[in-house]
Design a protein that fits this description.
Layout (H helix, E strand, L loop, with lengths): L3 E6 L13 H14 L1 H4 L4 E6 L2 H13 L9 H26 L6 E3 L3 E3 L12 E7 L1 H11 L2 E4 L5 E5 L6 E2 L2 H9 L3 E3 L6 E5 L5 E3 L6 H11 L4 E5 L6 E2 L7 E2 L2 E3 H9 L9 H14 L3 E4 L4 H5 L5 E4 L1
Helix pairs in contact: 1-4, 3-4, 7-9, 8-9
């Protein structure tokens, strides 16, 4: 039976080794992810893929910092647009090559996607979205004082820059994406959460200095597409309580009510699992369907209900 599936793939799907982050290395990571999705790609399922871009935006900003004596800085909305093109190119090429190796063909394309946000979203006053790589505290504090960055300690993994992350309200290319997905085209859309734009009283659009959470944008896309399944790929095969401790407890299935309770108890890090759980809650509540969080190797099994952590009504 054909299903409509939205898959959100995170940074681990595009950078598998933080010591090897060249463009060819990122393509190899995308190819490995496409191989993991092969059972879905070769099925009759209708697929939309949303990718993360946090490290890649960090690379663009770092290049701009190093070249600022000679070239202009790059605003965040342009960074997202750049990564949508470059990462979409990597992913769609990887998908085509995996299909070709299996002697199959399928249309695949990337849509440069703008996502409407509210100009008065509270996040513009309280930046919270981590971008770029991890730093030692001393380096982070230097950027804080010299460059005006807002920095935080991120879930025990190091220090990172944080920027405004307004909630996604509307996907401007939604009807184009819908037509592509319904036609059977593997559609890469809302990359990096989408290019954040605001609308003024004249109904004109303009980009803003922010990034949108990829998982929340993918949840919005899944709801607007009326997806049958929403998958989020991350670094671990299952969501856990007390992660990384001797008391770690992997979760097979949780209800929305249980997910909210675990959030209140502080089990999920803001820069890691929390936005994924929040994205799943929004999808499950809106559709009454299930969502699954797992790692890239278990995506196909998760779509069939045999892996990952299932979030249910």
């Amino acid at each position: 039976m054909s299903k409509k599936i939205v898959i959100a793939i995170g940074g681990n799907s595009l950078i598998t080794d933080p010591k090897h982050v060249s463009v060819p290395a990122q393509y190899e990571a995308a190819y490995l992810t496409a191989q993991n999705m092969a059972p879905l790609l070769t099925s009759q399922h209708k697929l939309a893929i949303v990718h993360g871009n946090g490290p890649q935006v960090g690379f663009i900003l770092r290049r701009a910092e190093l070249a600022r004596e000679h070239l202009h800085m790059v605003p965040l909305d342009s960074c997202v647009a750049d990564t949508q093109g470059a990462l979409g190119y990597n992913i769609q090429t990887a998908v085509r090559n995996v299909l070709g190796g299996l002697h199959q063909t399928r249309n695949v394309t990337t849509v440069v996607t703008e996502v409407l946000v509210d100009a008065d979203d509270p996040s513009f006053h309280s930046p919270s979205k981590p971008i770029g790589g991890f730093m030692e505290e001393a380096e982070a504090r230097e950027h804080e004082h010299a460059d005006g960055w807002t920095v935080i300690e991120d879930s025990g993994r190091g220090w990172r820059r944080v920027v405004p992350s307004p909630r996604p309200r509307e996907i401007l290319e939604m009807e184009v994406i819908r037509q592509l997905v319904e036609s059977g085209t593997v559609t890469i859309a809302a990359g990096g959460g989408g290019i954040p734009v605001v609308r003024d009283e004249r109904n004109h659009y303009a980009g803003v200095e922010a990034v949108i959470d990829k998982d929340l944008a993918a949840s919005l896309l899944a709801r607007r597409l009326d997806a049958d399944v929403f998958l989020i790929s991350t670094a671990v095969p299952k969501v856990s309580l007390y992660y990384g401790t001797p008391d770690q407890q992997d979760l097979e299935e949780i209800s929305v009510a249980e997910a909210r309770r675990y959030i209140a108890e502080g089990h999920f890090g803001r820069g890691s699992m929390l936005p994924k759980i929040e994205a799943m809650i929004e999808f499950v509540e809106a559709t009454g369907r299930e969502g699954v969080i797992t790692d890239p190797a278990h995506l196909a099994a998760a779509a069939a209900g045999g892996a990952g952590t299932r979030i249910v009504p």
